Amino acid sequence: MGKPAVILLSGGLDSTTSLAFARRNGFQCNAMTFRYGQRHEHEIVAAKRIADVNKVESHVIVDIDLRAFGGSALTSDVAVPKDRPLEEMSHGIPITYVPARNTIFLSFALAWAEVLGAEDIFIGVNALDYSGYPDCRPEYIEAFQKMANLATKAGVEGKQRLTIHTPLIDLTKAQIIRKGLDLGVDYSFTSTCYDPSPKGEACGRCDACQLRLKGFKEVGVSDPIRYQSTPGLK
To answer: What is the separation of C-alpha 96 from the centre of its chain, rounded to a whole number of angstroms?
Structure first.
C-alpha cells in the first residue's frame, strides 16, 4: 500500500485529474468533498461517482454552510455571470469567488490528514486558465503549507511534515485535459458548471463552462458531458 493522502475532490475536471495523478503516483487516496451550501447538488453526485470509480480508500462528505456568510453567486441568490468574453475572465475577481473557500477546505483536509497520519494533501488549483481566484495562486499554497506545519500536534512533535501537492497549478486547461486523458480519466463523470440544470446539464455559458470548452477545443476532442447549450466561446 502507498502512503496515505487526502485528496480534495469537488467532482470537477481539475480535482478529478488531481486524484488520478495521486493514484498514478502510488498514493492511498482518501477523498474529501464539501457540501458547503453551493447552488446545486450535482457536483456532490459527481464526486461520489468519481470516488467510487477510482476505488478510493475512503470518501467523506463534509457538511458546512457558507450561505451563512453569502458574498458569492455560488452561495446566494446573486446571478451567475454568463457569456463573459474569455479575456474579461482574466481581469479582476468575479462574483463566483467564495470567500476563503480553499482556506476552509484545506483546514479540514489538514485535520483529517493528521488523523490519518498522512503527510500529503492534493488540491486541483490552477493559476493559468482560471477566474482570478486569490486562493489558487502558488504563493497562497506556499503560505498555507508553512502555516500547516506549525498548526498540528503531529507537526510540532516532528511526526508529520505536510506537503500540499498542486500538480495542475501551472498548466493551462488544455494541458490539464491532456494530462487527465493520459492518466485514463473519464471526464464524462465530472461536473464543472456553476449553474447546471436540475438534471445536471451544464449551462455552457458560465465562466467554468467557457474555460472547460476552450480546453477541450484546444485538445481537439469533444467534451463528453451534456450541455444545455454551447453558444460558442466569446
So the answer is: 14
